[in-house]
Amino acid sequence: MNNLYYFLNDRNEQIGPLKLEELKSLDLTKSSLVWCEGFEGWVKAKDIQELSIFFEEKISHTFAINTKPPPIPIPINLQISTEKNNPNETTYYSKHNVMVTTKRFIVGSETYSVNNITSVSHKKKSPNWSIPILAILVGLLSINFNPVISIILILFGGIFLYLSKGKYNIILKTSGSETKPFTSKNKNEVTQIVQALNQAIIDRN
């Protein structure tokens, strides 16, 4: 029987369905998460019998009846842990100056009540490229009049464009307002915080 597989890439995106040979052609590691009909949940690639030869291992896995892929697992740093000082409050994310629990969303010195949050999302904000583009255009137009200044303007615009990265805003909505409490150039960090907040909103009910 030709089983069809699903695979979670490094961005936690579900890829599939895939045939076994197609799956092997991907950038799989031993810890990559894979699912196939009959699996109880997402399984590390090294623990699947069909892939054991691929990883030069002979490890078996017990299958259970299931017809749909289970929910995508929460990343390790989003897995639930209980605060020792407050057993009634569960932490979903805690890194740097950001914390998400069943009751609070803390960013630096600001604290937001999870009970007041109706929805959470994130949106990319592109950098302002008008200034570097203008600098390049001016440099190109004036190259015959002042080559030195022209080259400086072109280099400035080019370097600015090369180094510019978009920022990602977390958007919180309550019953009466919308706010952007956290901004980062790290999309993965923002995605993890949003996942944690959504899990907190689900669990509060």
Write the layout of secondary structure elements.
Elements (H helix, E strand, L loop, with lengths): L4 E4 L5 E5 L1 H5 L8 E4 L6 E2 L4 H4 L28 E2 L7 E6 L2 E4 L2 E4 L2 E4 L5 E7 L4 H12 L5 H17 L3 E7 L4 E7 L2 H18 L1
Antiparallel strand pairs: 1-2, 1-3, 3-4, 5-6, 6-7, 7-8, 8-9, 10-11, 11-12
- What's the story with the biggest beta sheet? 5 strands, antiparallel
Strand content: 25-35%
Number of domains: 3
What is the general shape? flat
Which CATH architecture of the largest domain is right? Roll
- Look at the structure and name the CATH superfamily of the largest domain: Pleckstrin-homology domain (PH domain)/Phosphotyrosine-binding domain (PTB)
Task: Give the N-terminus to C-terminus distance in angstroms.
Answer: 43 Å
* Rg (C-alpha, Å): 24 Å
CATH topology of the largest domain, by name, is PH-domain like
In spatial order, strands of the major sheet run: 5-6-7-8-9
Supply the number of helical segments: 5
Name of the CATH class of the largest domain: Mainly Beta
Number of strands: 12
- Which class of secondary structure composition applies to the elements? alpha+beta
Spans where pLDDT lies below 50 across 5 or more residues: 57-63, 76-80
The overall pLDDT, averaged over residues, is: 77
Order of SSEs: EEHEEHEEEEEEHHEEH
> Fraction of residues in helices?
25-40%
